[in-house]
Design a protein that fits this description.
Number of helices: 5
Order of helices and strands: HHEEEEEEEHHEEEEEEEEEEEHE
Helix content: 10-25%
Largest sheet: 8 strands, mixed
Structural class: alpha+beta
Strand order of the largest sheet: 8-9-7-6-13-17-16-15
Distance between the termini: 64 Å
Shape: elongated
Strand content: 35-45%
Oligomer: single chain
Radius of gyration: 24 Å
Length: 336
């Protein structure tokens, strides 16, 4: 049986309360509703079709942490639904049609929620699902420094949601062009599952990046990983007085293979790097090697722990600085 949401009651953007401002009849008449009204209307539909489902009261990240010892009503300002599917409980947020099952508004990822279940009310942990961004490139670098490759991208979870949101207003070519140098050319781009929110979002394309490598005499200098969210350190301040709180765990993986131009050999290549912080809470694996006339690079960054104290900040900042520097290191090719 499909999961249904009220087709004629989109969210009007009003939130900040767990009480519906309009009755169901008023929402159907206006063809819109506030956050609580949309969620409760969806709950009624789920109950009509026999699903086990209950409201979950939350406090958004900007509203503050809840006090679990005293579940006072005024500390809640957001509501989602917890739904039983195949004997597994999943959070569902009907405020946005692009949210798949298990994904709720990032603002609402604030550790605990209170389930309004008459038989068994109580607190639950709000655990965001981890997601992986996979980027793969297979191609070559030419003697003039141009990278020519076939690109594949697989995104799920929040990463897929954000790309789907952008694809509502722009073409996939424009979206990806913003992530690469200005003169990058994408051709034969294809998008799979653009409108199927419960599947991974897949993109494939032929890509050419002119002047990706700098040619200097008999040498070519180029960076294997052309796009990553972490080519710059996200932590710029030297000190921090508040905890670091990633909204969700994530993984970014780059797999790159470029054939060398004819007549060139590898003069130097970035050294391997393995980093780990907080017993694997954050890890990096970076490997670059030359084999059979190709430069192969693998980068995997995982953030499994989402909350760090201010005392952790210097070490975490230093780790991401090492990551940014490693991703900018170049392969040097020499004409034989």
């Amino acid at each position: 049986m499909p999961i249904l949401s009220p087709p004629k009651i989109p969210w009007n953007g009003d939130d900040g309360t767990i009480w519906a401002a309009l009755s169901p009849d008023e929402m159907f008449t206006k063809h819109e509703g506030d956050l609580a009204g949309v969620q409760y209307a969806a709950l009624a539909v789920l109950h009509h079709f026999g699903f086990k489902a209950y409201p979950v009261l939350l406090s958004t990240r900007d509203h503050g942490a809840v006090i679990t010892e005293f579940p006072l009503m005024d500390q809640f300002n957001y509501v989602v639904i917890i739904l039983n599917i195949d004997d597994k409980w999943k959070l569902v947020d009907f405020s946005n049609p692009l949210f798949p099952v298990g994904i709720i508004n990032e603002r609402a990822l604030n550790k605990e929620g209170f389930v309004l279940n008459e038989e068994n009310p109580g607190w639950i942990d709000i655990v965001a699902p981890s997601f992986q961004d996979l980027l793969a490139y297979n191609g070559s670098i030419t003697a003039d420094g141009t990278i020519v490759a076939d690109m594949k991208s697989v995104k799920n979870g929040y990463s897929a949601y954000y790309d789907r949101s952008k694809l509502k207003d722009q073409t996939p070519e424009k979206l990806w062009a913003e992530r690469f140098p200005d003169n990058t050319v994408f051709t034969d781009m294809a998008v799979e599952f653009k409108d199927e929110k419960n599947n991974a979002l897949k993109v494939s394309s032929h890509v050419e990046i002119p002047e990706a490598g700098m040619v200097n005499g008999d040498f070519i200098y180029f960076t294997p990983i052309q796009y990553s969210l972490f080519t710059k350190n996200p932590f710029q301040r030297e000190k921090r007085n508040y905890p670091i709180d990633f909204p969700y765990p994530f993984e970014e993986k780059n797999v790159v293979s470029y054939a060398l131009p004819e007549g060139y050999t590898v003069e130097s290549i970035p050294e391997a790097l393995n980093l780990s912080f907080k017993e694997g809470g954050v890890t990096l694996q970076f490997i670059a090697q030359e084999k059979n006339g190709k430069v192969n690079t693998l980068m995997t960054l995982k953030v499994q722990q989402t909350r760090f104290s201010p005392d952790d900040y210097p070490a975490l900042r230093d780790m991401f600085e090492q990551i940014a520097q490693k991703l900018q290191e170049q392969v040097v090719l020499k004409k034989a």
